[in-house]
Design goal:
alpha/beta; Glucose Oxidase, domain 1; Rossmann fold; 10-stranded mixed beta sheet; 7-stranded mixed β-barrel; metal ion binding; ATP binding; repeat; carbamoyl-phosphate synthase (glutamine-hydrolyzing) activity
C-alpha cells in the first residue's frame, strides 16, 4: 500500500491523500495554480519558493519529466532553475505511466531525486475554493506516523526568500551580444535570460544585492522572484540610483521586478488575498484597450492609486482589476506584473522584450525622441480597425440554418443558431431565420422574429432577401450548407446588390479555408506548413499527384462535409476508384500525403474585429490521424502535450486566424508527430462546428453566443463571462476535470455496410462525459453511447489484430478484449498507434476488473477505487458475481457516493453561477446542494437513427414551461439544446 499523508491548513482543515515523491514532511504557504500544462516549469520557478503548490487540473504527470539537458546559452532546455523550488506538490491524480517523446522519468521519480514530497488523491477543487474564500493560508504536509507538532508552520513571507534563490556571483550569457543588459537576479527564470540573449543582448546576471554601475550596461532588467518585495531594500536602493536621475538608461521589470520598481518611485505594494497564478490571466493595455492572455505567478500587487505623477498604468487585469504594469510618460522605464517570457504559458506579449531592446539600442545610438510609452502604444495598436463606437449595427439580420440533419451536420447547428438568435435579440436586432428543419429549437415560437421553412440554396435565400431586406447576414451558424450558400450568394452578387453585409468572418476568408490551393498559399505566407497536398480536377491529375507525393495518400473532396468521398489509397488502383467516386460529389479533390498514426489535435479559436484572440479549448483525438475527428474518441483538454507543444499549437492557431481575417470562431486541426514537436496544419473550419459544440459544453464557454456578439463588432473584452458574472469573456477557460467524447454509429441497421471507420464520417451521434479522472469519464461515455453497455467491456468483441490495425466502430471493445487476453501496452501501441498514456489508462480499468474478479466479498478501498475508475454498480456486480442491487446497497452502506461539481470555466478561482454540473467519485464536497424539491427532465441521450433533435426540441419545450419552478435536466449529448447556455437552472451530464 502507498504511504499516506495529510495536508493541514492553519485553520485546522485537513486533506488526506497518498504520498508520492520524497517521504518527508514540510510546511509553507499553500497556493493554487490553474494552468493545465507546464508542471516542470512551475515546480522549478523560483517564485514558488517554499510554497505548497496545488494544481487545479487533476491529472498531472502525464508527459513525465524530460532530461535536464543544456540548451541555448548553456541554460536548461526544459526547466526554469537548477532545482525544484516548491516545497511540495498537491494534486488530484498522479500519472504513474507517463508518455512523451521527451520523457526520461516520472514526476514521482523526479520529486524523490529533489527531496520534495507530493500528495495525490486530494479534492483540489475543494482546496482551491477554501483558499479562494479564506485567502492564501499557511499549511503543512505531514507524513502519516509523524507527530503533527513536530512539523511547525513556516511563514515564508517573514524572511528574505530572494536572498535564498538569487545567484551568488555574476554570470555572463551570450558574451558576444551587441547590447549590454544587466539583469538583477531576484529569482530569475531561465527563459527571461533566453528571451534577452536571443534578441542579441549580452546578459550579465548579477545577485539581488549587487551594486549597479550605469557604465556597465546599456539597459537594466529586473527579474521575477518570490516573497514580499519589501525585504529587498538593498535591491531597491541600487535601482533607485539608476532610475531616479534626469536621463536614466532603459529599465524593464517583470513580476517582483515590477513591484520593486514601484517601491523605488514611491508607490505602495500589498499582499493579495490569494494571488494570481495560472496561464489565462487577461490583461488590458491602457490606450489601445486590447486584451492579452498572460502567465502569472504572484501574491503581491502594486496599488495604482499611489503612483506618482508622470507615471501611468500600462496594463490592468480584466478580471480583478489589479495593476499589471506601469510606464513613465517620458523616461524609458516600464514594468509588468505578468510573465511575458511565459514558460509555462502563452506567449502573447513576449514581444515586450523586442520593445525593450529596441529602446535600449535607440538610446545607445542617441535616438531618444520617442518615449517608451509611445513605443508600446505603437507596438500594441492593431492597424486599420474601426473603433467600436464607429461600427454601424445592423437592424435586421438574416441567419442561415443548416437544413435537414445529415451525417456530419446535426443538432450542433440548431444549438449554435439558437445562441446566435439570443445574442442578437439581446442587442434589439430583428432576426430572420431560414431553416427547413421543423424539429429544431431555433424554429420554435419565441426565438427568431421570422422563420422561413425553405431550402438553404442561393435561389430561395435570394427571394427572402428581396422580401425582408436585411442589412446583415450570418453564414457561420449553419454548417457547411450555410457557408456554401453564402459563397454562392457572393459570387452571384446578391449580397452586394441588396446591400447585405456579411457579419463576422468575411466570405473571402471563408473561401481561403475552403479552396485548398489558396489555403496552402496563405499558410506559406506566414511560414506555416500544411500536410503535403495537391489539388486535382481530374483522375489523371490525382494519379500524377499521388506519384509525386508517394503512397499511401489520403483522398478528400473539396467543399465537402464530414469527409464525404474520402479515403486512403495504397495503390494506383485504389486511388482511381476513390477519386472516381469523389468526383461524383465535387469538382475538385485533394490528394494528401498520408500522416496516418500521427496525433490529431484541435483548437477552438475566437477573434474579434479588434484582433483580441483567445483559444477556448484544445482537444486531443484518442484515435490517431487517419480516422475522421467525428469518428474518433476525443478528450478535452489534451492529455499528452507538454507546455511547449500546447503553446506552440496555440500560437499557430492565433497566427492563422489573424492572417485569414476570421472574426468570430474557428476550428483548426493539426497533425502532430508523436516522436517530436513536428506538426502540420490539416485544415481550418471558419465556422461553428461539431467540435465547437463539444468545446462549448466541455468548458462552459458559450462559443456560439460570443461569436454572434463579435459579428456585431462588439469587442471581446467588453463581454462578460456569463458563468462568473464578474470576469471577462476575453479569457481562456481552465478546466479542473476531464471530458471524453465518444461517437455512436448505427451501422448494424444497414445491410452490407462496412463497419470500418476512417477518414469519411459515418457516426450519427456522440456523447460527452465528464469526470475528474480519465477512466471515470471514459467509462461513463461508453455507457452513455449504449445503455446496454456496462463500460469498457471485454465480452462484446473477440480479440482481433486485424480489427486493432484497421479500426471498426467496435474497436474500443476489441482493445478491452486484447488487454484481458494479456496484450501489452507496447503491442497495442504498435497495432493501433493510440498513445501509450491512453492505453495505460485503459489497462488500469482492465487490471482493476481482474482484481475485482478475485474477490468474493469486495474490500472497501478496492470498491472505492473501482468507482473512481468509472465502474458502474452493474459492472462491479458482474466482476464479483453478485447483483447490481446488492452492490448498490453495499456502496450506500459504505457511504461511497458521488459528489456534484460545477463546470465553471475558471477551475474554482472565481465564484460561479452556472447550470453546468457533473457527478464524480473524485471528490469530498458538493459544489451545490439540492435541498428543495426539483423536477427532473430526462433527455433522450445520444442521437441515433429514429431518435435525434426532435426529442431535444421536446425537452426544451418542457423546460420552457417549467421555468417558473426549479428544474434539473439529465442529458449528455454535447451538441444539443437542452443542456445549453442559460437554458436550464441545473443541467447534469452523467450516466452512472
Amino acid at each position: 500500500m502507498a504511504k499516506t499523508a495529510t495536508l493541514i491548513l492553519e485553520d485546522g482543515t485537513a486533506f488526506s491523500g497518498r504520498l508520492f515523491g520524497a517521504n518527508v514532511s514540510v510546511s509553507g504557504e499553500v497556493v493554487f495554480q490553474t494552468g493545465m500544462v507546464g508542471y516542470p516549469e512551475a515546480l522549478t520557478d523560483p517564485s514558488y519558493r517554499c510554497q505548497l503548490l496545488t494544481l487545479t487540473y487533476p491529472l498531472v504527470g502525464n508527459y513525465g519529466v524530460p532530461k535536464d539537458e543544456a540548451g541555448e546559452f548553456g541554460l536548461s532546455r526544459w526547466f526554469e532553475s537548477r532545482k525544484i523550488q516548491a516545497a511540495a506538490l498537491v494534486i488530484g491524480e498522479l500519472s504513474e505511466n507517463p508518455s512523451h517523446w521527451s520523457s526520461i522519468k516520472s514526476l514521482d521519480q523526479w520529486l524523490k531525486e529533489h527531496g520534495v514530497p507530493g500528495l495525490q488523491g486530494v479534492d483540489t477543487r475543494r482546496l482551491t475554493k477554501k483558499i479562494r474564500e479564506k485567502g492564501t493560508m499557511l499549511g503543512k504536509l505531514v507524513v502519516d506516523g509523524t507527530p503533527e507538532d513536530g512539523v511547525p508552520l513556516d511563514n515564508p513571507d517573514q524572511r528574505n526568500l530572494v536572498q535564498e534563490v538569487s545567484m551568488k556571483e555574476p554570470k555572463v550569457f551570450n558574451p558576444d551580444g551587441s547590447l549590454r543588459i544587466t539583469a538583477v537576479d531576484c529569482g530569475i527564470k531561465y527563459n527571461q535570460i533566453r528571451c534577452l540573449a536571443r534578441r542579441g543582448a549580452r546578459v550579465t546576471v548579477v545577485p539581488w544585492d549587487h551594486p549597479l554601475d550605469v557604465d556597465d550596461f546599456d539597459g537594466l532588467f529586473i527579474s521575477n522572484g518570490p516573497g514580499d518585495p519589501r525585504f529587498c531594500q538593498a535591491t531597491i536602493s541600487n535601482i533607485r540610483k539608476v532610475v531616479c536621475v534626469d536621463r536614466p538608461k532603459p529599465v524593464f521589470g517583470i513580476c517582483l521586478g515590477h513591484q520593486l520598481l514601484s517601491l523605488v518611485i514611491g508607490a505602495r505594494t500589498y499582499k493579495m488575498k490569494y494571488g494570481n497564478r495560472g496561464h489565462n490571466q487577461p490583461c488590458v493595455h491602457t490606450g489601445t484597450g486590447r486584451c492579452f492572455i498572460t502567465s502569472q505567478n504572484h501574491g503581491f500587487a502594486v496599488d495604482p492609486d499611489t503612483l506618482p505623477k508622470d507615471w501611468d498604468v500600462l496594463f490592468t487585469n480584466a478580471n480583478d482589476h489589479t495593476n499589471e504594469g506601469i510606464v513613465h510618460r517620458t523616461k524609458p522605464i516600464f514594468s509588468v506584473q505578468f510573465h511575458p517570457e511565459h514558460s509555462a504559458g502563452p506567449t502573447d506579449l513576449v514581444s515586450l522584450f523586442d520593445v525593450f531592446l529596441q529602446t535600449v539600442k535607440d538610446h545607445k545610438d542617441g535616438n531618444t525622441q520617442k518615449s517608451v510609452k509611445q513605443r508600446l502604444m505603437d507596438h500594441l495598436t492593431y492597424p486599420g480597425s474601426l473603433k467600436p463606437e464607429d461600427v454601424i449595427r445592423p437592424k435586421k439580420v438574416l441567419i442561415l440554418g443548416s437544413g435537414g440533419l445529415s451525417i456530419g451536420q446535426a443538432g450542433e447547428f440548431d444549438y449554435s443558431g439558437s445562441q446566435a438568435i439570443k445574442a442578437l435579440k439581446e442587442e434589439n436586432i430583428q432576426t430572420v431565420l431560414i431553416n427547413p428543419n421543423i424539429a429544431t429549437v431555433q424554429t420554435s415560437k419565441g426565438l427568431a422574429d421570422k422563420v422561413y421553412f425553405l431550402p438553404i440554396t442561393a435561389e430561395y435565400v435570394t427571394q427572402v432577401i428581396k422580401n425582408e431586406r436585411p442589412d446583415g447576414v450570418l453564414l457561420t451558424f449553419g454548417g457547411q450548407t450555410a457557408l456554401n450558400c453564402g459563397v454562392d450568394l457572393t459570387k452571384l452578387g446578391v449580397l452586394e446588390k441588396y446591400k447585405v453585409r456579411v457579419l463576422g468572418t468575411p466570405v473571402a476568408s471563408i473561401e481561403m479555408t475552403e479552396d485548398r490551393k489558396v489555403f496552402v498559399e496563405k499558410m506559406e505566407e506566414i511560414n506555416e506548413h500544411v500536410a503535403p497536398s495537391e489539388a486535382a480536377l481530374s483522375v489523371e491529375q490525382a494519379v500524377a499527384a499521388a506519384e509525386r507525393l508517394g503512397y499511401p495518400v489520403l483522398v478528400r473532396s473539396a467543399f465537402a462535409l464530414g469527409g464525404l468521398g474520402s479515403g486512403f489509397a495504397n495503390t494506383r488502383e485504389e486511388l482511381t476508384s476513390l477519386v472516381t467516386s469523389a468526383f461524383a460529389h465535387t469538382s475538385q479533390v485533394l490528394v494528401d500525403k498520408s500522416l496516418k498514426g500521427w496525433k490529431e489535435i484541435e483548437y477552438e479559436v475566437v477573434r474579434d474585429a479588434y484582433d483580441n484572440c483567445v483559444t477556448v479549448c484544445n482537444m486531443e483525438n484518442i484515435d490517431p490521424l487517419g480516422i475522421h475527428t467525428g469518428e474518433s474518441i476525443v478528450v478535452a483538454p489534451s492529455q499528452t502535450l507538454n507546455d511547449h507543444e500546447y503553446n506552440m499549437l496555440r500560437n499557430t492557431a492565433i497566427k492563422v486566424i489573424r492572417h485569414l481575417g476570421i472574426v468570430g470562431e474557428c476550428n483548426i486541426q493539426y497533425a502532430l508527430n508523436p516522436e517530436s514537436d513536428q506538426y502540420y496544419i490539416i485544415e481550418v473550419n471558419a465556422r461553428l462546428s461539431r467540435s465547437s459544440a463539444l468545446a462549448s459544453k466541455a468548458t462552459g464557454y458559450p462559443l456560439a453566443y460570443v461569436a454572434a456578439k463579435l459579428g456585431l463588432g462588439i469587442p471581446l473584452p467588453q463581454l462578460k463571462n456569463s458563468v462568473t458574472n464578474s470576469t471577462t469573456a476575453n479569457f481562456e477557460p481552465s478546466l479542473d476535470y476531464c471530458v471524453v467524447k465518444v461517437p455512436r454509429w448505427d451501422l448494424s441497421k444497414f445491410l452490407r455496410v462496412s463497419t470500418k471507420i476512417g477518414s469519411s464520417m459515418k457516426s450519427v451521434g456522440e456523447v460527452m462525459a465528464i469526470g475528474r479522472g480519465f477512466e471515470e469519464a471514459f467509462q461513463k461515455a461508453l455507457r452513455m453511447v449504449d445503455e446496454n453497455c456496462v463500460g469498457f467491456d471485454h465480452t462484446i468483441k473477440p480479440v482481433s489484430d486485424n480489427e486493432l490495425q484497421t479500426p471498426t466502430d467496435k474497436r474500443i471493445f476489441v482493445l478491452a478484449a486484447a488487454l484481458k487476453a494479456g496484450y501489452t501496452v507496447d503491442q497495442l501501441y504498435q497495432l493501433t498507434k493510440i498513445d501509450r498514456w491512453f492505453l495505460h489508462k485503459m489497462k488500469n480499468i482492465s487490471d482493476h476488473e481482474r482484481l475485482l474478479e478475485t474477490y468474493n466479498q469486495v474490500e472497501l478501498l478496492i470498491f472505492f477505487f473501482a468507482k473512481q475508475l468509472g465502474f458502474s454498480d452493474k459492472q462491479i456486480a458482474q466482476a464479483v458475481q453478485s447483483t447490481e442491487l446488492a452492490v448498490r446497497k453495499m456502496r450506500r452502506d459504505w457511504s461511497i457516493l458521488p459528489v456534484v461539481k460545477q463546470i465553471d470555466t475558471v477551475a474554482a478561482e472565481w465564484p460561479a453561477y452556472t447550470n453546468y454540473l457533473y457527478l464524480t467519485y473524485h471528490g469530498t464536497e458538493n459544489d451545490l446542494s439540492f435541498q428543495e424539491p426539483h423536477v427532473m427532465v430526462i433527455g433522450s441521450g445520444v442521437y441515433r437513427i429514429g431518435s435525434s433533435v426532435e426529442f431535444d426540441w421536446c425537452a426544451v419545450g418542457c423546460i420552457t414551461k417549467l421555468r417558473k419552478v426549479r428544474v434539473s435536466d439529465g442529458s449528455n449529448p454535447p451538441k444539443t439544446q437542452s443542456p445549453s447556455y442559460r437554458k436550464t437552472p441545473a443541467f447534469q451530464t452523467n450516466y452512472n
